[in-house]
Amino acid sequence: MQTAAIAFDRFKPLQDDACESRILAAKAALGKRAVILGHHYQRADVYKHADLSGDSLGLSKLATQTDADYIVFCGVHFMAEVADILSRPEQTAILPDMSAGCSMADMASLAKVERVWREIATVLDPDEHVTPITYINSAADLKAFCGEHGGIVCTSSNAQLILDWAMRRREKVLFFPDQHLGRWSGYMNGIKPDEMLVWDFDEPMGGLTVEQIKKARILLWKGHCSVHQMFQAQHIINFRDQYPDGMVISHPECNFEVCKLSDYVGSTDFILKTLKEAKPGTRWLVGTELNLVNRMAELLKPEGKVVQFMAPTVCMCSTMARIDPQHLAWALENLVEGRVVNPIRVPAREAELARTALKRMLEVV
Ligand code: 13P
Ligand code: SF4
Fold this sequence. Notes:
By secondary structure, this protein is α/β, with parallel strands linked by helices. It has helices at residues 16-30, 44-47, 56-65, 77-86, 110-121, 126-129, 140-148, 159-169, 179-188, 210-215, 233-242, 256-261, 268-277, 290-300, 325-336, 348-364; strands at 34-39, 52-54, 70-74, 92-94, 130-135, 152-154, 172-176, 196-199, 218-221, 247-250, 264-265, 283-287, 306-309, 343-344. The strands form three sheets. Strands 2-1-3-4-14 form a five-stranded mixed β-sheet, sandwiched between helices. The longest helix has 17 residues, at 348-364. Bound molecules: 1,3-dihydroxyacetonephosphate and iron/sulfur cluster. Residues 40, 55-56, 137, 155-156, 225, 251, 253, 267-268 line the site of 1,3-dihydroxyacetonephosphate. 1,3-dihydroxyacetonephosphate is lined by residues 40, 55-56, 137, 155-156, 225, 251, 253, 267-268.
């Protein structure tokens, strides 16, 4: 009979260095049976234990490739769900702290999306005219909704290609939950600003008229990332005044003005690659999460590159930061004892439909 899991309370008071040695010991004991995947925003004291790291697209591909029995996800809930959906049934995805969510993903729910779909249906048949695209930063049931309605998933690194795929099939797109990624991708694909309208899910019919809905090509869900909304055009203007030769790079979750003023816009992986490949002696202003920026600033300092954070205030992905060394040590030590804590298990039917939408994406990129 399996004994009860070791309680997290025993790990809570541990100092970080004590956790460090326990994580290393547990990893050594588990060997290839467990793989730790880490998102680039993960705090440094956890990120250093990741066997593999990546952006959301890279991590979802890694989940299909690993042979490990346990995929320990140091990221947020939707990422671990994707790992569960794309891995084999006998593998188990684990999220060391279940409260590591994504505030943007929480801005769209299945009930709200279904209501919007019904509202659109009073104007035109959405299953004939509208492709739903969900950003990977969303719950599994929204990916399932897209799977069921001829839709698809996108990430920050492939959103333009996915949007193009969608618009070749049906003339309109409902893009959720991040309006900024949707708008930037539409703009980059040549869609006019007045053809991209925000759907305010708190208003009947999104606050739009029938004529507006008929004319729109992209309906943008009124969602955003609480971290990336902190970056503002004025930060870039100030930087350029001070450092006319400086370069600016941003994540597409930033607002349209920030993206437009940036020299480069792309996913976390793209940002890392661009900074690493930059010429020595260059100076960069970076509009994305603080842990990533701090890590790059340290790494590239010896090459004479200056990497600076875009906002004057601290903006971290505080939900991802809930995966701390204490939770990682707790999850791993339980695995060593043969006990799985915090497994992520998407219900079978939902997983099947979500897999359809994810696989459509993976066939495009
Ligand atoms: P990436 O896919 O670029 O890693 O972004 C994930 C994310 O949550 C950004 O806020
Ligand atoms: Fe979600 Fe924003 Fe955190 Fe990315 S940075 S995981 S979008 S809350």
